[in-house]
Design goal:
Layout (H helix, E strand, L loop, with lengths): L3 H4 L7 H11 L30 H22 L9 H8 L1 H11 L3 H19 L8 H8 L2
Helix pairs in contact: 2-5, 3-4, 3-6, 4-6
Length: about 150
């Protein structure tokens, strides 16, 4: 499955998790603009035409950094070992609105979604940032084969 072969143990990522990753990082996975707050409304969701619920990978990394998990996020982008993130820490960083939206889009229970995302994100971000630079949404979509 391409990028997941090395990024994820076993390289196996199910369709619901792919939908969640796409919704986080690539806007075309959002079923409609009504899923996002209107201009001027702030529900903790970044406004982005091309970067998914959080404004792409930069938005995801910013959410993690702003919630006290910058050391983990930076380890995924930088060289060296990827620090793990607990599902509860990831849930706190993303915020309940985002987690709820992702669970609705995937049909997965929130706890299971967070468990799977926390297992996949460190390796995925690492593979998508080989030079320590975050890619554009189009590059992410291509890498994920969306």
């Amino acid at each position: 499955m391409g990028i997941f072969d090395d990024a994820v143990p076993g390289g196996n990522v199910g369709k619901p998790l792919m939908i969640a990753l796409g919704a986080l990082l690539v806007s075309r996975f959002l079923s409609s603009r009504k899923d996002q707050p209107e201009q001027g409304q702030d529900k903790g969701v970044a406004q982005s035409e091309d970067g998914g619920l959080l404004g792409g990978m930069d938005g995801l990394l910013d959410k993690l950094r702003n919630s006290g998990h910058g050391d983990k996020a930076d380890s995924w982008v930088g060289s060296g070992d990827n620090k793990p993130i607990a599902k509860d820490d990831l849930g706190d960083a993303l915020g309940s609105d985002i987690v709820k939206q992702l669970a609705e889009k995937t049909g997965m229970p929130e706890e299971e979604l967070l468990k799977q995302l926390s297992a996949v994100l460190p390796g995925l971000v690492d593979k998508l940032t080989p030079a320590g630079k975050t890619p554009e949404s189009g590059q992410i979509a291509s890498a994920l084969r969306m």
